[in-house]
Amino acid sequence: MSDRPTHALVFAAGKGERMRPLTETTPKPLLMAGGKSLIAWHLEKLAALGVRDVVINTSWLADCFAPALGDGAAWGLRLHFVHEGPEPLETGGGMLNALPLLGEPPFLAIAADVWTDFDFATLPREPEGLAHLVMVANPEHHGRGDFALGNDGRLQLATAGAEALTFSGIGLYRREFLDGWRGIVGDAPGANETPPRFKLRPLFDAAIANGVITGQRHDGRWTDVGTPERLAALDAALR
Question: N or C: which end of the chain has fewer CB within 10 A?
Answer without folding.
Answer: C
